[in-house]
Amino acid sequence: MKELTLKSLIKEYQLDELTAEDRHLVESAIEATNRSYAPYSKFHVGACLRLDNGVELKGCNQENAAFPSALCAERAAIFAAGTQYPNVGIQTIAIAARTPKGNLTEEPVSPCGTCRQVLIESETRAKHPIRILLHGEKCTYLIEGIKHLMPLSFTEF
Ligand code: THU
After folding, report:
1. How far is the CA of 61 from the centre of ligand 1 (A)?
2. Active-site residue (options: 74, 121, 123, 144)
């Protein structure tokens, strides 16, 4: 028997320690939380991604009375990018969320499993690791590649 230890690297920043570019992306993700349609969960998630060509696109969660028909903020942004710029990679994606009380989450918000799976494929398309900024009031995490959030991931066979 052999034990394998897998390592994930997460860098923790205060908002004012981020580069101006990264801070701008986080602020845009925060702004996108105000556009979210979440009348059921009242959990308002915003995402903003920057493509390799510098274009920025926002996404926010879109809920539906038929619950499984909803879409997360991350995938709303990623699929918009895939539609409008199918041949351009995603460089960085920032994510933020507001609780039902309206305040930003204390802890950095973390993407769901389905969004992680979509990010894996987005990295394959981009041909480089995607930088992920997860914002919380306490701190912002910078994760340089989806492998740090999803080890042993399923890719094409
Ligand atoms: N949600 C996101 O938009 N992104 C995530 O990564 C996690 C969850 C949304 C889905 C649903 O509209 C609400 O948050 C509560 O789960």
Report:
1. 6
2. 74
Give the Cα separation of 14 and 101 in Å (integer): 23
Ligand 1 centroid to Cα of residue 71, in Å, is 7
The DSSP 8-state label assigned to residue 29 in this structure reads H
Residues 10-148, CATH architecture: 3-Layer(aba) Sandwich (3.40)
12 flagged as catalytic:
no
Q: Strand 90-98 relative to strand 44-51: parallel, antiparallel, unpaired? A: antiparallel
Return the structure tokens found at 76: 């709303």
Report whether 74 contacts 118 (CB < 8 A).
yes
Q: Is the pLDDT of residue 157 over 80?
A: no
pLDDT at position 125: 97
- How far apart (Å, rounded) are the C-alpha atoms in residues 24 and 48? 10
Percent of the chain at pLDDT above 90?
A: 97
Q: What is the DSSP letter of 126?
A: H
